[in-house]
Design goal:
This protein is mainly beta. It contains five helices and 20 strands. The chain has two domains: 118 residues, SH3 Domains (SH3 type barrels, Roll), CATH 2.30.30.40; 122 residues, endopeptidase fold (from Nostoc punctiforme). It is 14% helix and 40% strand.
C-alpha cells in the first residue's frame, strides 16, 4: 500500500482517470490518502477522512511513507478558519488555501502557517455560525470550498470545522446519526434530508431556528422548512420533499 498527501490548495477528485471526467469531490490542502492504484498519469485514492474514492492527477499529490501517514492520523487536526488564507513554502512562496484546509500537515510538507485555525470538537451551537460563513457561495457540483460547494460538501465542511465527521454524499450522510420523528423535535444544527421522485436521497441542509434551513441550492441560501419540505419564497413553491431529519452532533 502507498500513501499520499495534497500539497495544493484545491485539487479535483474525478470519477475516471481523465481531465474530462466528472469531478466527484475536491481534495483540499493537507488532506492525506491511501493510494489504491497507480498508473502513469493518474492514481485511484481513498481519502483518510471520509473514505471517499476517486482518481487524482499524479502531478497534484505527493507520496508519503506509511509511517508519515500514521503520524498524520494520530495528530490532532487543525483546520484553517478564514475564507482564504496562505501557506508559505520553503522558498517563501505563498500558497492560497481555502477555509477547511488541514494545516496540521504543514510541517510534513515543510510549509509554515501563521493564520487562524481550529481543532477539536466545538459546541453544537457553533454549527450555524460556521454555516453562515458560506452564505451566498455558489453551488458547484463536487465542491467543498467558499469558491463553490454542493449540498453535502457544505454540510460535511460545516461539521468538519466543528470537529464532527460526516461522510461525503447526502445519501451516505443520511445513514449516520439518530432519526427524529418530527420537525418540532429538531434543534439548530440537525440535518434534514430530501428525496426525489424515485425515493433516492439527493439533498441535505442544516436546520436553523424558527423552521428555517440553510442549504446549497443554486447558492448557499436560507429558506423555510415545513413538514412537506423546503419552501422557496422566490418561487412560491416547495423545491425539495422532506424525507428524514437526523441528529448527528
Amino acid at each position: 500500500m502507498k500513501y499520499g498527501i495534497c500539497p495544493m490548495s484545491i485539487v479535483p477528485l474525478r470519477l475516471e482517470p481523465a481531465d474530462t471526467s466528472e469531478m466527484v469531490t475536491q481534495v483540499l490542502y493537507g488532506e492525506y490518502m491511501k493510494v489504491l492504484e497507480e498508473r502513469k498519469h493518474w492514481s485511484r485514492i481513498r481519502l483518510s477522512f471520509d473514505k471517499y474514492e476517486g482518481w487524482i492527477d499524479n502531478k497534484q499529490f505527493e507520496f508519503i511513507s506509511e509511517d508519515e501517514y500514521h503520524i498524520l492520523k494520530n495528530t490532532d487536526t487543525k483546520l484553517s478558519t478564514d475564507l482564504v488564507d496562505f501557506i508559505a513554502s520553503e522558498a517563501e512562496q505563498l500558497i492560497t488555501i481555502p477555509m477547511g484546509a488541514n494545516v496540521s500537515s504543514c510541517s510534513m510538507l515543510k510549509h509554515s502557517f501563521e493564520g487562524k485555525a481550529v481543532s477539536g470538537k466545538l459546541p453544537k451551537e457553533q454549527l450555524i455560525n460556521t454555516a453562515l460563513l458560506y452564505l451566498n457561495v455558489p453551488y458547484f457540483w463536487g465542491g467543498k470550498t467558499p469558491f463553490g460547494i454542493d449540498c453535502s460538501g457544505f454540510t460535511q465542511m460545516v461539521y468538519k470545522l466543528n470537529g464532527y465527521k460526516l461522510l461525503r454524499d447526502a445519501s451516505q450522510q443520511a445513514s449516520q446519526g439518530e432519526a427524529l420523528s418530527f420537525i418540532e423535535e429538531s434543534e439548530p444544527g440537525d440535518l434534514a434530508f430530501f428525496d426525489n421522485s424515485e425515493g433516492h436521497i439527493t439533498h441535505v441542509g442544516i436546520i436553523m431556528e424558527d423552521n428555517y434551513i440553510i442549504h446549497a441550492h443554486g447558492k448557499v441560501r436560507i429558506d423555510r422548512l415545513d413538514h412537506s419540505g423546503i419552501f422557496n419564497y422566490e418561487k412560491r413553491a416547495h423545491t425539495h420533499k422532506l424525507r428524514v431529519i437526523k441528529r448527528i452532533a
